[in-house]
Design goal:
With 162 residues, the protein is mostly helical. It has seven helices and no strands. It starts with a helix and ends with a helix.
Length: 162
Amino acid sequence: MAATRDIVATYRGPGKVMRRLLAGGARDDRALIYLMLGCLLVFVAQTPRLAREAFETGQDLSMLLGATLLAWLFIMPLVLYAVAAITYGIARLFGASISSFGTRMALFWALLASCPLMLLWGLTAGFIGPGQERTLVGALWCIVLLWFWIGGFRAANAEAAS
């Protein structure tokens, strides 16, 4: 199934989609591409906010974009791999049977699947600016990201236990 269809299906049931993704086997190339696409979309979501910030403060837009690109495409993938490894360690400490691949897939897919809301946040930040609207969309994105991550994690743990 196409990733876009899986993203839409994740909003209906993250566990079901995660089980289908894990049924394809432990393929780290697929996990890495989900992570990099998610990070790329988060970078793209930042551009309206950065353009607004550059306009309002007189800063150089290319410098802001370069720093954000470095952060989201080079540093955050490493951070997210570390978060997945820590999550795996904590889960195993508490007796979960999830695999390290399942832990990574749950986190990386949650990031990618929640990106439509991150793109909405970027548009809100760019066109409306700071305020309760931007905060509301950002909070909604965080809630959905956690929902997808927890749902995917639980499904991956159930798959590993069976």
